[in-house]
Amino acid sequence: MFEAQMQDGKIFKAIIEAIKDLVQDCNLDCSEEEVAIQSMDSAHVSLVAVRLSAGGFSNYRCDRPNSLGINTANMSKILKMLGKDDSITFKAEDESPDNLTMLFEGGKTTIADFDLKLMDIEAEQLGIPDTPYQCTVQMNADEFQRIVRDLQVLGDTCTISCGKEGIRFSVTGNIGNGNILIRSNDEQNEKDRVTITMDEPVELNFALRYLNFFTKATPLSSSVIISMSPDVPVVVEYPIEDFGHIKFYLAPKIEED
Amino acid sequence: MFEAQMQDGKIFKAIIEAIKDLVQDCNLDCSEEEVAIQSMDSAHVSLVAVRLSAGGFSNYRCDRPNSLGINTANMSKILKMLGKDDSITFKAEDESPDNLTMLFEGGKTTIADFDLKLMDIEAEQLGIPDTPYQCTVQMNADEFQRIVRDLQVLGDTCTISCGKEGIRFSVTGNIGNGNILIRSNDEQNEKDRVTITMDEPVELNFALRYLNFFTKATPLSSSVIISMSPDVPVVVEYPIEDFGHIKFYLAPKIEED
DNA sequence: AACTGGACCA
DNA sequence: TGGTCCAGTT
């Protein structure tokens, strides 16, 4: 038996909205410690990893590790029916369940329950090396979203350079070039603070198209954490309060000479 | 001579908006007691019945019963010009009038009047049995609208089950199943109150497409009254304060075996 | 599917 | 008056 209640259901809704453009089908990997999602996007370019630790749920029980294969578009359709302040209770059988049952509870009078048909999804095992990164930047998530959206009008590829003084986003395109520099600072209010932790400067190129997909997770977090090392995928992480995080991985473009 | 003034013209506008997707042409049946509309929808699947009692109008005079055949789309176009707080005064001749004249009066300075061309519409007489129903549920109209809209993503057919404890809306579809249960209650504020009056439980299937058409009448009323008996059409009624009601009838789908 | 404008609600 | 939600549009 798997059963877990999330008080603030819109967190789960936001997660599904954040990944559904990248990932068609994925497993909810439920264990005693967490509900996790790990999946390459449909084009096998980027990777999504979600962690919802058991401690964030108000009730959590998972007798046996289990993978629940969902179609994200269908899940999204059902979550459209989630009320403003509804909680979600997830339920599934232990042995190869056919359905994931979700209870939406809000006002006292209304209870909605939905069965989402599950599917078998082969779990490609994805080794994510947990190595330290050469540069890590924490900044406002809305600002990151705006930068990535804005720069897309100039070109497809964004150069992200991280040094002590700050992080720079640069695009070279037909109509012109652009540079946005975010300076490291120590603002009073956490929202505007920009924190940089680094050993050596790093400069890497990325496809703006994918960075834009990642920023669909912006509603989940006030800040975003960008981690880079030479020649390895960048990590774009949105912490999810009480639960864990959603992380996106994207390999750098190789410099064309 | 027929002449009637409706202080709050947007009630009539809302009625036309509510029925114009179902009914192309219909008669305004004017008598000493009321203005009534009765019509099957174009596909002859459902039935609309409106009653506006003479008492709701601020001036009412109907010398002779008369049927004014209108095209709802054209009526809607004229009503688009109704001002925010305008009253409407309807005027028509007794003997087979060619036009229905409508006066829109709001601020003291502006008066608009429009003549809508009338047409002859054969009045198919529609016997609506006025039998008591086995289950009657009164609930919030907005909530009913939301449920019917939401469930449409899961499938075409909705099972409505009414029992003592509440009313349940269920849909079975390809991507999964859904159940929304509204519990009978005795809320303080009338808006959230759910009242169930019943002899025996009833369970019937309906086309969500039509239930959705009916909810176009939601702006007319804070609550909706759903009445069901086995094997007869459901009645979805929106009371219209001071005037009467708009009722929709829809035959249940026969269980496929 | 994303964006937009419009409507309703707080 | 601003925010949110929904429907229509590209």
From TrEMBL, chains A, B:
Keywords: DNA replication, DNA-binding, Nucleus. GO terms for biological process: leading strand elongation; mismatch repair; regulation of DNA replication; translesion synthesis. Belongs to the PCNA family. It is found in: Nucleus. One of its GO terms (cellular component) is PCNA complex. Transmembrane segments: none annotated. GO terms for molecular function: DNA binding; DNA polymerase processivity factor activity. This protein is an auxiliary protein of DNA polymerase delta and is involved in the control of eukaryotic DNA replication by increasing the polymerase's processivity during elongation of the leading strand. The keyword Cell inner membrane does not apply. Residues 127-253 form the Proliferating cell nuclear antigen PCNA C-terminal domain. InterPro entries: DNA_clamp_sf, Pr_cel_nuc_antig, Pr_cel_nuc_antig_C, Pr_cel_nuc_antig_N. Residues 1-124 form the Proliferating cell nuclear antigen PCNA N-terminal domain. This is DNA sliding clamp PCNA. It comes from Pseudo-nitzschia multistriata.
